C-alpha cells in the first residue's frame, strides 16, 4: 500500500480480509437500517394522519351505525383507530342482540374486542423498531472489533521491519479506524430514529387507549 494514499476508498480496498468482512456487514446493516428508517417514517406519519381524520369524523356527531358501515366498506385503508372502533362496535352490536347479557358484560366484550385490535395495530406499527434498536447498540462494537483486528495486524507487521516508524503503522491504523467510522455511521441514525419513533408510537398508543375508554362510555350510555 502507498503510505501517502490514505483516501477512504484506498483504505477500504487495502484492508485485511477480516476488516473488509466487518465493513461489508456494517454496510449491509446500515442499508437495511436506512430502509426501515424511511419505511417507518411513512407508516407512522400515515397512522397519525388517519387517526386525526377519524377522530374529527367521530366527534363531528356522525351516526355511529353509518360510521361503522363506512369503515367496514374500506377497512384496510381506514386507519388503525377506525379499525379499533369497527371491532368494538361490531362486538357491541352482536352482544346487544343477546337479551340475556347484562350491560356490563356487553361493554366488557366490546372493550376486549377493541383491546385485541389495539394490540394488533400497535404491533404492526412497532414492527422492525427492535431492529433499529439492535443496530444502534451492536454496530459500534462490530466496528470496534474490525478496528482492533486491523490494529493488531498493523503491529504484527512491524515484526518484519527493522525500524518502526509512524509511517509504517499509520496506514494500517487508518484503515482499521474506518471500520469504527462505518459502525458509528450505521448506529447513530438508527438510535436517533428509534428514540423518535418510540416516542411517536407512545403518543399514538395514548390516543388509542383514550378513545377506547371514551367510546366505551358512549356505548354504556346507549344501554341505559
TrEMBL record:
Its localization reads: Cell inner membrane; Cell membrane
Q: Which residues cross the membrane?
A: 17-38, 129-152, 172-194
**MotA/TolQ/ExbB proton channel domain location, by residue?**
82-209
UniProt keyword list: Cell cycle, Cell division, Cell inner membrane, Cell membrane, Membrane, Transmembrane, Transmembrane helix
Give the way it sits in the membrane.
Answer: Multi-pass membrane protein
This protein's superkingdom?
Bacteria
Entry keyword annotation includes Transmembrane: yes
Quaternary form? The Tol-Pal system is composed of five core proteins: the inner membrane proteins TolA, TolQ and TolR, the periplasmic protein TolB and the outer membrane protein Pal. They form a network linking the inner and outer membranes and the peptidoglycan layer.
Q: Which HAMAP family match?
A: TolQ
Q: What does this protein do?
A: Part of the Tol-Pal system, which plays a role in outer membrane invagination during cell division and is important for maintaining outer membrane integrity.
Which family does the entry's similarity section mention? Belongs to the ExbB/TolQ family.
Give the protein name, as stated in the record: Tol-Pal system protein TolQ
Taxonomic lineage per UniProt?
Bacteria, Pseudomonadati, Pseudomonadota, Betaproteobacteria, Rhodocyclales
Q: Which gene encodes it?
A: tolQ
